Structure formats: structure tokens, C-alpha cells
Amino acid sequence: MSEDVNSLNVATGIVDELTDNRNNAVTQGYFGRFNYDYDDRYLLEVSGRYDGSSRFHKDHRWGFFPSASLGWRISEEKFWKPLSSWWNNSKIRFSYGSLGNQQVGYYDYILKLNTTGTMDKLTFDGVNRVPYAIEGDPVAGDLTWEKVISYNAGVDLGFFNNRLSLSLDMYIRDTKDMLTSGAELPNVYGAKVPRSNCADLRTRGWELGITWHDSFTLLNSPFKYSIGAGIGDHTTEITKFNNPGRQLGMHYVGEKLGELWGYTIDGLFATDEEATAYKPDVSLVCSDILNAGPVRGLHAGDVRYVDLDGNNIISDGDKTVDNPGDMRIIGNTTPRYNYNFRGSFEWKGIDFSIFFQGIGKRDWYPGAEANTFWGPFGRCYQSFIPADFMNNVWSEDNPNAYFPRYRGYEGRSSNSMGKVNTRYMQSLAYLRLKNLNIGYTLPCLKKTFKELRVYFSAENLAVWSPFRKHCKTIDPETAMVAEDDTANDYGFSKTFTFGVSVIF
User: Fold this and answer.
1) What are the C-alpha distances in Å from 81 to residues 73, 76, 93, 161, 167?
2) Which of 229, 257, 285 is a domain's end point?
3) How far apart, in whole angstroms, are the C-alpha atoms of residue 86 and residue 80?
4) Residue-wise over 239-248: b if at least 16 C-beta within 10 A, else e?
5) Comparing C-alpha atoms, which of 461, 445, 453 is closest to residue 495?
6) Helix, strand or coil for residue 140?
7) How far apart are CA 447 and CA 237, in angstroms?
């Protein structure tokens, strides 16, 4: 084989079983940094990178990524001295930075030949079909770096000899030249739309942290303790995307990343008469109910969709943002209000720490294969059904149930419960007792050991979530790990550890 083309896939002739892949990329970069500190009051750092990657065409290979940060310790100024007895630290800071992303494939800017095709009937030896080569889908030859540009402003405060500390950050992160589908093209184009650097998005967020730590004497021994809490939030908005018609199912300018569009349901039909009298055409969202099974048509216990636009048809309009029919934004999958709080103390050899963490807001709609949620509403033959599941299913004796009258496969994407809607939209907000540690250092053995400590630790002891009201088998923190919304990943396990730590 050639030293330059050393792949078995370039072999010619009859090959029965042979597979090989080779990828190669080269990067080169230059980096510089400058730091300045004046009297521990004025802080400056400037840096820059100039990087090149063989993943892009030679005319678009290089990118320059600068960054800078400024800090001012106001508490070191002379005019701050009257406050220093109780407000002893105050610092403001600003930063700007940019990074490049080259993970766009190895040879995406090069038009490729597809050599896997074979003639259906033509052979040269009467046995083996004649192979042929054909051009692959068009590519954008001007692919270049995706860029992430961040702006940050923050403040650090300390009070009462830094017993009380507070930190606040606000940031904007712009992602430029994202690699995604290019301009919409008519079907007569005859190929996939090539990917290009044609999308931007902006993330706005903030983070707040506060901590208090102190000590005092309790029963002639020092009692040290600390408590703290933190919270943060962010949203991301599409600022550039080639979707002039604002078609749903694609990104569009103004979209909040994670949006869930769906229909509104205002309960279940109470009687067959009420269901029969319901006028809107529901064939789009309830086609299975109308056309499948021995009992067809709307009945008591079926879901009642709301005709929001009043045209007597439950529809998705033109499937655009401007004409979505009866669909609305009813949720968002972005985790909002990430928070935590913690505490610890040490006293007479006893040490204790506890940590809670959670999400304040996050929405999820179960996918068609989320069988642990849908149960028999997903697949009729589903073998795992919680013991109390049928207690949540509508019947004449249970008219206030969460799930409708039983019909198989209703959780499938094309059926009435599979359509994203308000009734079965799930909140994945949660609070988890993440970590607990208790230890005791024996004071009577210090002549033999420097330290002997017995301890107990536990992870994931408990979780509280509104999601658990209707489903206790899915961990709200891991429900969205699977990209297809199946929630088939294992949740976090409870772990308990007992141990002895000895230092000689």
C-alpha cells in the first residue's frame, strides 16, 4: 500500500470481506498571553490564539480567537477603608473570550464519490454485478470554524471578615457560524441541502452563590459550621437561521431552544353524549379512535382537545409559527433554575455534611417508546406494568383518572396521547438529596494513630418531583438522557458506604 493512501478500501478486484477506515487531521496553532497586576487592585489579562485545521479548505483554515479580562478590587482602594471593618472584600470583573470549534467532520468540505453502487443486471463474468461510482451530495467548500464568543460581568463580595461571601455572574454567549442545514432548495434540486456555517444563537444566563461560615464555642469545644446555596438560569435563542417561512420542525429566528409545540386538552369526556356532541373535527389527533378497533368514535373517557382557533378543526394550520393552527408553545426542555444548597459542621470529632441539588423547571413529553410511562397505552404487550397503574386509568367507577379509557397504542406518536399535549406534558423539576456524610474521629487513639475516623456516606438518598405523582419508575434527572425520549436509562442508584480511615 501507498504511504499516503494506506487504506484497504482502495483495493481493486473481487473482495468478499474487507472493511477499513482511515481519518486524518492536522492542527497548528500559536498562543500568546499578557498579564498585568497593579498593586493588587487593577488586574488585566489579554490572550490570543491563532489556530489552523486541515478539516477546512486552505482558504478558510485559520481562525483568530482573542480573549481579555479586567478586574478591579475596590476594597483595596483608600476610600474603602471606612467600610472595611464589616465589608472587607469587593471586586468587580469583566471578561471577553472567543473559542473555535473544528469538530465538523474530517473531509466535509470535499465532494466525495460513492463507490458502493452496483449495476442491477450488468456483469462482465456472469456472476458479479458491475460496480460504479457516483458523485455524493453537494458540499459547501467554504466551511470554517464555529465560534463561541462569551461576555461576562461579575462581582465578588465579602462581609464580616469573609464569613459571608457572595458571588454574582451574568453572561452572554454567542455561538456564531454554526454548522447546520443550508438554504431551503426546491425538490427539483435532487440532492440533500449541504451543511454550511449559516446559524447563530445567543445564550443569556446568570449565576448566584452565597456562603456563610463561622465558628463558636459549644460546651468548651469549637463548633465550626458552614451553609451555602447557589442558583443559576439560562435561556438560548436562535438569532440566525435560514428558515424564512418559519416552518415548524426546523429552527427559526426567535426560537427559544427546547420549545415544545403541542395541543391543549381540557380533560376527558364525562359521558358518551358529551363526546358525541363534540363538534370539532379531531381526525388529525384521534384518527385511531375514529377508525380503529371494535368501538369507534369518541366516547366517555376519551381526551377532549380544545379548538383554540375556533374553526371546528383540530389542526396544525400551515405548520408555521405564524399559522400553527391549534398548536401552541406548551413547554420547554431546557433545564431552568439549577439550584443547590449545602451545610456542614465539625464539633468534638463529629463531622457532618449534606448536599441538595435540583432543577426548578423543565418539561418533557414522553416518546412513543417510553413504555415505563405509557404502560399498555404504548404497546399492548408491554410486560412491565406498575401494580397501581390501572388505578390511574379511566373507568365508569374512576371518572377522575389521569389516563383516558384504555385503548392500545394510544401513546404512539400518531395517536391521541402520542400527540404532544398539555395533559400529558410532564414536569421534570426535582429536588434530590445528593450526598450525606457523617463521621467521627476517635480522640482517644492519637498516641497510636495520627487519625482514626469512622464514617458513613450515602448518595442519592431521596428525590422529590411532581413527576412522581404519575410515574414512580423513571428518575426525573435521567428521563431525558435518551435522545429519543424513551426514558429507558437507569436512574441514579442509592449507595451506602461504611468505612474506617486510618492515618499513621
Assistant:
1) 13, 8, 21, 14, 21
2) 257
3) 11
4) eebbbeebeb
5) 461
6) coil
7) 63
- Out of 222, 257, 292, a domain closes at 257
- Within 77-122, residue ranges assigned H as helices are none
Structural domain includes residue 421: no
Burial 389-423 (b: 16+ CB within 10 A, else e): beeebbeeeeeebebbbebbbbbbeebbbbbbbbb
Whole-Å CA distances, 448 to 174, 297, 452:
59, 82, 9
Expressed in percent and rounded to 5, the helix, strand and coil fractions of the chain are 10, 45, 45
Taking the C-alpha atoms of residue 153 and residue 171, their distance in angstroms, rounded to an integer, is 6
Neighbours of 426 (CB within 10 A): 23
58: containing domain = 23-257
Identity of the amino acid at 191: A
Confidence (pLDDT) at 408 = 81
pLDDT number for residue 160: 93
- CA separation for the pair 331, 259 (Å, rounded): 6
**Measured distance CA(47)–CA(34) in Å, rounded:** 6
Whole-number Å distance between alpha carbons of 157 and 164 = 8
Amino acid 272 reads D
Length of the chain as a residue count:
504
Give me 222's grid cell.
469549637
Residues with Cβ within 8 Å of 140's Cβ and at least 6 positions away in sequence, in order, are: 109, 182, 194, 195, 196, 197
Q: Are 202 and 222 in contact (CB under 8 A)?
A: no
Angle at 351 between CA 348 and CA 355, to 5 degrees: 155
Cα separations (Å) of 473 from 411, 422, 470? 17, 21, 9
DSSP letter, residue 301: T
Q: What is the DSSP code (8-state) at residue 192?
A: P
Average pLDDT, stretch 464-483? Answer: 88
Give the tens place of pLDDT for each residue, 49-77. Answer: 999 998 888 888 899 999 999 999 999 99
Residue 4 placed within a domain:
no
**How many whole angstroms separate alpha carbon 292 and alpha carbon 118?**
43
| pLDDT, tens digit (0-9, with 9 covering 90-100), for 18-44 | 566 677 788 889 999 999 999 889 999
At 381, the amino acid letter reads Y
Q: Is residue 243 part of a domain?
A: yes
pTM above 0.70, yes or no: yes
Residue 342: inside a domain: no
Distance CA 104, CA 110 (A): 12
3-state SS assignment for residue 168:
strand
- Taking the CB of residue 37, how many other CB atoms lie within 10 A of it? 11
Query: Structurally, how many domains does the chain consist of?
Result: 2
362 vs 368: CA distance, rounded Å: 19
Residue type, 238: I
